[in-house]
């Protein structure tokens, strides 16, 4: 009878282990598909068409773009191995699931790729780059671009030519870059190069921005004075992509599901630290006249409008280490129109609750079955 009881306990224990494995597979794999399949590409609103763009310039297939920020891959100093493993798996699973389900044409990661980039040795930085491209690998027909963040190369006052250049070389990310696809122009900018003090990084950035603006204006006006080499094939107002938000006093103006918690919303931003300076923000608006601005850095979501028709979206950190409910931005673009919408990732606290409830239920099941077997054994013994 003892052997029968032992066999019964092992049987119930095996059932519990299998159930726990099923919960693990659901939470760490299937949950991402269940949540992210609910995201959809936004629909273009025909009432928002820019009528100044010629109809002949809008025949291209719309561009589907995905935007994330602040992945903060942990380093050797501040990252515990389990924390690193968990966060990187979450980001890998969410990113690859999005790419598989929604197949974006182009993906932008808006700074702070690494948590300890500025303090890393050359060898550590090379490993960082390898990990990044392993986690955020994309199909051949999908383009991936990044911009620098302060955790990648440091705030303005600590950036050296070496720190800047190794990021530029390793991630193929110059301080200013224009990515043009199907008549849409994305201008990627290193926020730390917008200090306006004429530094080794700032002056070339300013020159490059003015050059891009001249190209766009030349293409729009098709003036005889324009050099033909400077004319790009199509014109549309550009989309600015950078790490820092444009100047704002705080997150108090924000009203999003993924906004900053109430206890920190009204903390004042420091110019050039939590956001661009007011002067740099105005200069960007004057020089490029963008139709949209997308950035990160604060780790929380925000939406605001500049000069009546220029929307700015600040997207939260993509790492669950910094945000319980991360999100990303999906955008559909044509030269004369665009539409964006948020896509929310699985909520980590919900995932933890699923684990806790499942483990408790499995434990209760095991106890009930074992007690039932024990009572049955006692009754047989009595008879």
What does this 3D model show about the protein?
The protein is an alpha/beta fold and 383 residues long. It has a single domain, classed as Purple Acid Phosphatase, chain A, domain 2. It has 9 helices and 11 strands. The strands form 2 sheets. Strands 4-5-6-7-9-8 form a 6-stranded mixed β-sheet, covered by helices on one side. Helix 1 packs across helix 2 (81-102). Mean pLDDT is 89; it is low at 228-234 and 377-383.
Q: How would you summarize what this structure contains?
A:
This protein is of the alpha/beta class and 383 residues long. It contains 9 helices and 11 strands.
Structural class: alpha/beta
Radius of gyration: 26 Å
* Average pLDDT reading: 89
Number of beta strands: 11
Helix content: 40-55%
The count of helical stretches stands at 9
Number of domains: 1
Task: Write out the CATH superfamily name.
Answer: Metallo-dependent phosphatases
The succession of helices and strands, N to C, reads: HEHEHEHHEEHEHHEEEEEH
How are the strands of the biggest sheet laid out side by side?
4-5-6-7-9-8
Query: What top-tier CATH class fits best?
Result: Alpha Beta
- Tell me what the CATH architecture is: 4-Layer Sandwich
Which spans of ≥5 residues are poorly predicted at pLDDT below 50? Answer: 228-234, 377-383
> Termini, distance in Å?
14 Å
Protein name: Metallophosphoesterase 1
Pfam family, one: Metallophos
GO molecular function: hydrolase activity; metal ion binding
Subcellular location: Membrane
